[in-house]
């Protein structure tokens, strides 16, 4: 009756991996690009829109390749919807830049190239971060934002059924 | 009278009979310092001598009695005034009278029950000590000597592995397995994580050991969590069908055996926390309790006879059969 003096540290048995799983495309592909800023409107009613293109193989998204145009205000709407309806800590958006809307500025204000680029980057980081959140993926507002041509602010909030 | 002039006083010294042969164990004090104390097990006899040395030879020391106590007590830090004594033994060494010269008294506490392990934690302390006291009218003279007690166990008869499938529906499914549910303090946790579904972008995975000290009862229960270890087991993005091995050596960490509801005052429990972190720093975790126990050392001839008997009470049960031939070739697949 001898006690094992050295512990048995051999690996536990595991199933061998299927080669199509090992070398196939990963199941977590999700990429969203925010690009091509365009100024819309005239005078004091101008605003900037961005192209939001999503490519994914996640089953929860109806379209595996979608492209929509969105403005800053639409991103704010999405953030508010998610904060109200879910327990998710929603990442922050790039700033509102109210100062840039005041008159008598030396530069182009909201339409300054460097500002638009800074905002574009911030929006891209925001949408990628939130779209990858398992709980956010259940919210109808996220799907509408990413995959429907326009946002219906009178929509019925709720969860997406898989 | 010791208020004015030179009243007689004395120094007390407690010396164990087996001080030369008895092993010492390291124990952390409340302020974090590590000291060594004599190590005892349940059932061992505590015997020794109390040396009373008079400060001013020639003068008498009047006293109300000399005694020695063996005490095991629990002290809750938020309630320092109340010590909960679960072992309290006393031996009278001298009846009230006077000492005219320094004197030595023998004592023996035979086969003392020491049901719990010594523990110094964040909010509670369990300690054993000898206390010799010379009773006097105005102020007693006393001396304490702490000892450390370890509780030993044998290989448990039943030690099932922990195997579970967990996840977030349609996002992440894993099956984790740990080879045992009860580990001794120098054991190795051998396990694996098998990925069934990965629809999130995992950056890395780690396994943490968490110690939870619980004090208080009823509505006043307080948990103190402490992460003892963080051990990264995977760096990079796994896909379906991948199996990540775990091999975590416990001897490198400072841990105690699991203590459940000690004297109904406190508990110390340990948990394995499997944590997956995705590219956006979101954390997905699964906590699982494990039981830790203390294995007795191999009995050596130099150990005192009494300690040898104590160890034999705990060793000597049947061990799980292990194959004698172990293949050294490991599949690194």
TrEMBL record, chain A:
What are the start and end residues of every segment in region (Disordered)? 1-24
Q: Looking at the keywords, is Protein transport present?
A: yes
Q: Where is the PX domain?
A: 28-152
Q: From the Swiss-Prot or TrEMBL record, what is one GO molecular function term?
A: phosphatidylinositol-3-phosphate binding
Pfam families cross-referenced by the UniProt entry: PX
Alphabetically list the UniProt keywords. Answer: Acetylation, Lipid-binding, Phosphoprotein, Protein transport, Transport
Q: What is this protein called?
A: Sorting nexin-12
Q: Which organism is it from?
A: Larimichthys crocea
Lineage, highest ranks first: Eukaryota, Metazoa, Chordata, Craniata, Vertebrata
From TrEMBL, chain B:
Q: Which domain of life is it from?
A: Eukaryota
Q: Bias regions of kind Polar residues — which residues?
A: 323-333
Going by the UniProt record, its keywords in alphabetical order are: Protein transport, Transport
Q: Where is this region: Disordered?
A: 310-333
PANTHER family from the xrefs? VACUOLAR PROTEIN SORTING 26 RELATED
Family, per entry = Belongs to the VPS26 family.
Protein name, as recorded: Vacuolar protein sorting-associated protein 26B-like
Q: Which lineage ranks, top first, belong to the organism behind this chain?
A: Eukaryota, Metazoa, Chordata, Craniata, Vertebrata
């Amino acid at each position: 009756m001898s006690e094992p003096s050295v512990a048995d540290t051999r690996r536990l048995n595991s199933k061998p991996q299927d080669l199509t799983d090992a070398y196939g495309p990963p199941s977590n592909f999700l990429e969203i690009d925010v690009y091509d800023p365009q100024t819309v409107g005239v005078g004091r009613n101008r605003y900037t829109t961005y192209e939001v293109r999503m490519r994914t193989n996640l089953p929860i998204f109806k379209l595996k390749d979608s492209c929509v145009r969105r403005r800053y205000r639409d991103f704010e709407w999405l953030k508010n919807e998610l904060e109200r309806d879910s327990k998710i800590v929603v990442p922050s958006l790039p700033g509102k830049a109210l100062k840039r809307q005041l008159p008598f500025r030396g530069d182009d204000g909201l339409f300054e190239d460097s500002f638009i680029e800074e905002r574009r980057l911030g929006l891209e980081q925001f949408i990628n971060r939130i779209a990858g959140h398992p709980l956010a993926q259940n919210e109808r507002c996220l799907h509408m934002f990413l995959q429907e041509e326009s946002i219906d602010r009178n929509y019925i909030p709720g969860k997406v059924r898989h | 009278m010791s208020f004015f002039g030179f009243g007689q006083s004395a120094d007390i010294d407690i010396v164990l009979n087996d001080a030369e042969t008895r092993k010492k164990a390291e124990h952390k004090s409340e302020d974090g310092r590590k000291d060594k104390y004599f190590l005892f097990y349940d059932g061992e006899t505590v015997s020794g001598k109390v040396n009373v040395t008079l400060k001013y030879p020639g003068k008498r020391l009047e006293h109300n009695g000399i005694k020695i106590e063996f005490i095991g007590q629990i002290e809750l830090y938020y309630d320092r005034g109340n010590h909960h004594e679960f072992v309290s033994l006393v031996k009278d060494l001298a009846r009230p009278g006077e000492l005219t010269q320094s004197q030595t008294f023998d004592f023996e506490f035979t086969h003392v029950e020491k049901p719990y392990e010594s523990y110094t934690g964040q909010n509670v302390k369990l300690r054993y000590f000898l206390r010799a006291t010379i009773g006097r009218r105005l102020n007693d003279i006393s001396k304490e000597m702490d000892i450390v007690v370890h509780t030993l166990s044998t290989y448990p008869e039943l030690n099932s592995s922990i195997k579970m499938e967990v996840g977030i529906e349609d996002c992440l499914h894993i099956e984790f397995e740990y080879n045992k549910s009860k580990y001794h303090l120098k054991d190795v946790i051998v396990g694996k994580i098998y990925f069934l579904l990965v629809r999130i972008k995992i950056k890395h995975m780690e396994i943490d050991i968490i110690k939870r000290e619980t004090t208080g009862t009823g509505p006043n229960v307080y948990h103190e969590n402490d992460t003892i270890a963080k051990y990264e087991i995977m760096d990079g993005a796994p896909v379906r069908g991948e199996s990540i091995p775990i091999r975590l050596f416990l001897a490198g960490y400072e841990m105690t055996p699991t203590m459940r509801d000690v004297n109904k005052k406190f508990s110390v429990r340990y948990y394995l926390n499997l944590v997956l972190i995705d590219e956006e720093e979101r954390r997905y975790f699964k906590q699982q309790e494990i039981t830790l126990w203390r294995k007795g050392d191999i009995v050596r001839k130099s150990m005192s006879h009494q300690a040898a008997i104590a160890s034999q009470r705990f060793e000597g049960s049947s061990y799980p059969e292990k194959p004698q031939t172990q293949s050294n070739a490991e599949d690194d697949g």
